[in-house]
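Researcher: We're teaching a course module on how sequence relates to structure. For the next exercise, students receive a sequence and then see the predicted structure as tokens, so they can try to spot secondary structure elements on their own. Here is the exercise chain.
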Amino acid sequence: MTSRKRYASGEPCWADLQTRDVAAAKDFYQHVFGWSYQDLPTPDGRSYAQAFVKDQLVAVIAPQNPMQEAAGTNGQWNVYIAATDTEEIADDAVHAGGKLQFGPEAVADTGVLAFIEPPGGGTTGIWQAGTHRGSHLFNEPGALAWAELLTPEPQAAVGFFQELFAHEVTEYPQDDGGSYSTLMVNGDEVAGVVPAGEGEEPGWQIYFAVADLRKAVEAAAAAGGEVLVEAEDHPETGSLATIQDPQGGVLSLIQV
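Model: And here is the predicted structure for the students to work with:
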């Protein structure tokens, strides 16, 4: 099991869950991933949970803000892209045709956070590491493994991220005439951009790795989750499934 010491600018580096019931979400994902937790206080007197694979930090489960709770918003997984200068990325996002939704804001000494939105939609976290570099594991069972943006404006979104992070891009033509784009850093594919289907909301689809996909899907169902996409074998990309936790958080699984 290899720990990630750093992330290059433009790489997805972290994912967290905002949910209305932290305790229930902890129980659910413990069944799916075998996570252990450390509970820490929030400034408003509630608590959030750091999730670990062995002693390696891989995610956080945090309470929704009061507005989300009052609106009955479903749980939401967020993905964060590493940056060397969050303030610069936030400024560039607006000039590149996107929106700045939040920040930049320093989170104590852990890092600097912002949320931006590319053309076509899809809230995207930006993280400039301080003491918190991101997930200590990547593409390992129980840890973040991949992320792809579903968007009605895929080419605009690709151009947006290229302008912000200088991503190289590889295009994979699809049978329906569209294209699956991958964003690349130092020659490695780090994220995907996918045309959204009719009626699909724009947003990031986040993948966590598992050692045994069918066992993880069965555990999710037994713990009260819903299987949105049954386990499927894909020789080129790996075995995939998509689940929804009892509070509505949607997460895809990939076997590694």
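Model: If you want an answer key for the exercise: The CA atoms of residues 106 and 112 lie 4 Å apart. Helices lie at 22-33, 66-71, 86-95, 154-165, 213-222.
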